[in-house]
Amino acid sequence: MRAILERLKFHGLFIKLFVVMVICIISIAVSVVWVNLRMSEQLFLDTFSITNSKVIDQIRSNFESFHYSIVLAAGNAQQSGTLKTFLTEKESEQSIKTFSAYYNMTQQMKKIQSNVDAYSVGIAIVGSNGRNYSGNYNFAKPLAQELKESPLTLRAEAEPKKLMYQLYKDSGGTLGNRPTIVATKVLREQTTGQQYGMLYITIDENDFKPFYSSFTSEGNDVMIMDPEGIVISSNRSEMIGQQNAELLSLAREIQQDGLDLKKVSVGGKDKLVLAEYLPSYDFYLVNMIDQRYVLGQMVNTRSIIVICLLIVLAALIVVFLISRKMTRSLTLLARQMSKVHLRNFHNYVNVSGSYEIRQLSHAYNYMLNEMNDYVKQLVKTEKEQRTAELAALQQQINPHFLYNTLASVKFLVQQGSKEKAEATIHALISLLQNTISNVSETISVEQELVNLKHYVFINHVRYGERIRVNYYVAPDCESCHVPKLIIQPFIENAFFHAFNVKGEGVIRVLVSMESQKLICEVLDNGEGMDVQRISEAKSKQRQGSRQLFSGVGIANVHDRIRLLYGDDYGVTIQSELGEGTRVRITLPLVGIQ
User: Please, what is the average pLDDT of the chain?
Assistant: First the structure.
């Protein structure tokens, strides 16, 4: 396997040419397929709206025929004096009179039933006197008393002038929770409007479905919804009785905007939605088409894939023959050049072959000569730069800082504060040892904090303790290494610039880990500064203005970090006038060597 990979690496040019050609061919094939699909989709959309509009018109016609029969039946019931008498008179003690009333009512109901004999419906009435009747029960229908006690009766009574269609589902009743569509009509006096009964015309949802089911198929669904978004009927039985506010919103939008259809995404699938409002029922007729499924029936994907594979295979043969001839001489040169080992710039290639190959060989050998000279010069420059950096680190103490510190010690001795003078001298000695004697480029966070505390102690001796310094260091960060005196310049800047007006305050030093990086922060609650002042501070540091303790300066800390660790690390400063300043130093996690 390794030998095969070794041979293949010399055919990189051939592989690249082959890959480019294959990508081009596949891109063209995909583009052609995409254009074809888009054209097919557009053609489908152009014809779909016309075809399905006719389908919806046919479905609406079926609904209107049924509604007309219901209206006739409801009108006859409203005008029937026999029914009115049956539903309003009180129960008689005379059995003959009661029997006669029931017989006349039954005959009248049969006449009313004849208006809807073409459909598998049931008719029930309930009167204000408590009498009720349930007829035509060749099919399972809800009883009159069950309907009277259901919520749909209250909704019908709220709009007594309206013939309403509602969904009824009983729980454990005569239907076994089967959905039924019920047309309700309040029976009332023509002159006074007083209600004396309720007419129910019921049809099983399975008998209601044939009005549109012949126009449905896989990927082509029909939903009948009421104004509250509840699905009254659908070829997808799992949706019946469920509220679908999203689909209702789409239906209203299509109706209000006068759209022929609307493309939407439902459940991650592209759908085409048509909607029609049925005012007679106060229902929305929604037709939803799975666009991807329909288009999938129009395109033979398998044939397209086979054709593309044949084209790619033919292109592979052509590219192999052409590129092999072009790259053979280059492959030989590549094999010779591959003998150059890592960091070995003395492995020159033999000059042979065609004119182009010989020129490349000469150029390569010349490059090796130049590279050797450059490496020697680079090594020399690096040594000089490293020597200069170490010297700079060892001479970061400003003479004025030493003079002022020693003067403070002298003053303490004169005042008799020998212990404080001794502590100051100890802090200064430790600080000098870690900056001048220690030539290491990095020190541990723990040692850096020791240096900071010594520096802060000396400043407290010189200027008083009006500025307090608190340290918060995560225990797992103490052994990490940081560049020497990387935090001190920002402590110094806070001491001498952050509290000129306030006079006192707090400086906080925080060290923690975040996203596999070491974060050192210096926060003060001083006067803060604006962005322009930060820029001016950086400029003054570069110009060699008052540097106090740090000879490198604040601005140079950022440059130093980037040179050591790369552009992902460095210093960021945030400051607001009157609020304080936040310095954030981002460093890599480097442990004790």
Answer: 78
Q: At what angle do helices 81-88 and 95-113 cross, to 10 degrees?
A: 140
Pairing of strands 467-473, 505-514: parallel
- CB count in 10 Å sphere of residue 458: 22
Signed CA dihedral, 206, 211, 212, 217: sign only: positive
Q: What is the DSSP string of 241-308?
A: T-B-HHHHHHHHHHHHHT-S-EEEEETTEEEEEEEEEETTTTEEEEEEEEHHHHHHTTS-HHHHHHHH
**190: Cβ contacts below 8 Å, ≥ 6 apart:** none
| Chain center to CA of 301 | 32
- 393 token code pair: 């680190």
Q: Are 274 and 260 in contact (CB under 8 A)?
A: yes
Distance CA 56, CA 119 (A): 21
CA gap 509, 584 in Å, rounded:
10
Report angle CA 487, 490, 496 to the nearest 5 degrees.
140
Length of the chain counted residue by residue:
593
Bridge partners (DSSP) listed for residue 574: 582
Tell me the backbone φ, ψ of residue 61, rounded to 5 degrees.
-65, -40
Residue 109: HSE in the Cβ half-sphere, 13 Å Cα cutoff: 24
* pLDDT (0 to 100) of residue 98: 79
Q: What crossing angle do the helices spanning 488-497 and 445-463 adopt, rounded to 10°? A: 20
pLDDT at 547: 40
CB 332 within 8 A of CB 357: yes
Q: Residue 11 — pLDDT band, cuts 50, 70, 90?
A: low
For 329-366, what is the HEC assignment? Answer: HHHHHHHHHCCCCCCCCCCCCCCCCCHHHHHHHHHHHH
CA dist 241 and 235 (Å) reads: 13
How many CA atoms lie within 13 Å of 333's alpha carbon, on the beta-carbon side? 21
3-state class (DSSP) for residue 573: strand
Question: Cβ(498)–Cβ(527) under 8 Å?
Answer: yes
Q: What is the pLDDT of residue 200?
A: 92
Band the pLDDT of 544: cuts 50, 70, 90.
Answer: very low
Measure the CA–CA gap between 351 and 456, rounded to whole angstroms: 68
Per the listing, tokens 């009277």 go with 148
Tokens of 402: 């030493």
Place of tokens 């492959």: 331
Which whole-number Å values give the CA distances from 259 to 4, 53, 212, in the listed order?
63, 11, 22
Distance between CA atoms of 484 and 475, rounded to whole angstroms? Answer: 19
CA atoms of 461 and 170, how far apart (whole Å): 90
Please state, in angstroms and as integers, the Cα–Cα distance from residue 364 to each residue in 370, 496, 505, following that order. 10, 59, 65
Residue 231 is predicted with a pLDDT of 92
State which H helix or E strand residue 483 sits in.
Answer: strand 481-483
The CA distance from 184 to 173, in Å, is 19
The tokens of 171 are what? 């729980």
